[in-house]
């Protein structure tokens, strides 16, 4: 592959957001890839599952439709209920469904809004600059913007896509949510219309009760699409890594699959990925850190530098409230 830049010298001048914006506007940057993590969704207000006081921390296994052995396992580590046990789901689908019920239905009703970070990706798509988004998030917020679905690879699956763990056939997300409302009890006591007891949701194709959002369970392989799309990174002119600690493998390997002279913009409050070869400071030749600011703040700055303010103002009514406050900077 022909390199755009000379070896041994900085690939952009300057190595900052201004340099990135000028590169994007230059016409030389035609293929942009992103690797995203939880940081791009922080401004959406999605419930925090893992922090103290979050959903896992406050989980009451005694309310779940499960055996005592399964409840004991969940008491020792609440994450077992939704991510860690593939075999548990095959034996008993109810704990997964009951814990995830409000998150799934909230995703359908767009209770949480796509952020400036998500809309920046949509704007890249509109400008025919976006090649692919590798997202580690399962929240489905990428799709709210109307981004081309074929441009998104859900590395760990997505709440917004439903498949059968048995026959692998897809089920309509809206149809699944209808069944979820009718069949799965509400352990949080917020939905008076929910049934008192849970009953199975059968797969429309194989009739087994194994349909669920396509989030990856422990013991399951990552989607083949992730591995199939990795070679396409060889065509990258720019990689943007946003809102991820780069500690989860194999998703973090994305940073190593782009050409040697491909600029890598790290949008994260902390510097990450040094163990993967990302170089910061005066020794950097192609790696750029956006600084100690949020993803939404960094992408807002890029939107201003690119002259895309009108794009953002047209959709400002769709943004979460915290993002609307940021728009005052425009």
UniProtKB/TrEMBL annotation:
<dbReference type="InterPro" id="IPR003000">
    <property type="entry name" value="Sirtuin"/>
</dbReference>
<feature type="binding site">
    <location>
        <position position="167"/>
    </location>
    <ligand>
        <name>Zn(2+)</name>
    </ligand>
</feature>
<dbReference type="Pfam" id="PF02146">
    <property type="entry name" value="SIR2"/>
</dbReference>
<feature type="domain" description="Deacetylase sirtuin-type">
    <location>
        <begin position="10"/>
        <end position="309"/>
    </location>
</feature>
<dbReference type="InterPro" id="IPR029035">
    <property type="entry name" value="DHS-like_NAD/FAD-binding_dom"/>
</dbReference>
<keyword id="KW-0479">Metal-binding</keyword>
<feature type="binding site">
    <location>
        <position position="164"/>
    </location>
    <ligand>
        <name>Zn(2+)</name>
    </ligand>
</feature>
<dbReference type="InterPro" id="IPR026590">
    <property type="entry name" value="Ssirtuin_cat_dom"/>
</dbReference>
<dbReference type="InterPro" id="IPR026591">
    <property type="entry name" value="Sirtuin_cat_small_dom_sf"/>
</dbReference>
<feature type="active site" description="Proton acceptor">
    <location>
        <position position="156"/>
    </location>
</feature>
<keyword id="KW-0808">Transferase</keyword>
<keyword id="KW-0520">NAD</keyword>
<feature type="binding site">
    <location>
        <position position="203"/>
    </location>
    <ligand>
        <name>Zn(2+)</name>
    </ligand>
</feature>
<dbReference type="InterPro" id="IPR050134">
    <property type="entry name" value="NAD-dep_sirtuin_deacylases"/>
</dbReference>
<feature type="binding site">
    <location>
        <position position="206"/>
    </location>
    <ligand>
        <name>Zn(2+)</name>
    </ligand>
</feature>
<protein>
    <recommendedName>
        <fullName>Deacetylase sirtuin-type domain-containing protein</fullName>
    </recommendedName>
</protein>
<keyword id="KW-0862">Zinc</keyword>
């Amino acid at each position: 592959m022909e390199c755009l830049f000379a070896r041994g010298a900085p690939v952009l001048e300057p190595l900052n957001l201004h340099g990135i914006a000028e590169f994007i506007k230059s016409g030389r940057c035609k293929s942009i890839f992103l690797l995203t993590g939880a940081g791009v969704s922080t401004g959406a207000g999605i419930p925090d599952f893992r922090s103290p006081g979050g959903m896992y921390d406050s989980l009451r296994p005694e309310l779940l439709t499960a055996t005592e052995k399964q409840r004991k396992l969940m008491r020792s580590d609440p994450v077992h209920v939704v991510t860690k046990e593939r075999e548990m789901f095959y034996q008993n689908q109810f704990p997964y469904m009951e814990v995830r019920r409000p998150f799934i239905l909230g995703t359908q009703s767009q209770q949480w809004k796509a952020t400036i970070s998500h809309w920046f990706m949509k704007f890249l798509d509109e400008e025919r600059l976006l090649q692919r988004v590798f997202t580690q998030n399962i929240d489905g917020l990428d799709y709210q913007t109307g981004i081309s679905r074929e441009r998104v690879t859900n590395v760990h699956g997505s709440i917004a896509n439903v498949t059968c763990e048995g026959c692998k056939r897809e089920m309509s997300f809206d149809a699944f949510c209808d069944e979820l409302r009718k069949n799965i009890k509400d352990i949080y006591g917020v939905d008076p219309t929910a049934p008192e007891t849970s009953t199975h949701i059968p797969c429309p194709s194989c009739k087994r009760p194994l349909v669920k959002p396509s989030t990856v369970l422990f013991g399951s392989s990552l989607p083949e699409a992730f591995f199939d799309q990795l070679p396409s990174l060889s065509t990258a002119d720019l990689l943007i890594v946003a809102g991820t600690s780069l500690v989860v493998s194999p998703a973090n390997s994305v940073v190593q699959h782009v050409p040697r002279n491909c600029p890598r913009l790290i949008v994260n409050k902390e510097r990450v990925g040094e163990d993967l070869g990302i170089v910061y400071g005066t020794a950097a030749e192609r790696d750029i850190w956006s600084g100690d600011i949020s993803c939404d703040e960094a992408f807002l700055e890029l939107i201003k530098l690119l002259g895309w303010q009108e794009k953002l103002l047209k959709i400002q009514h769709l943004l979460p409230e915290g993002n609307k406050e940021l728009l005052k900077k425009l």
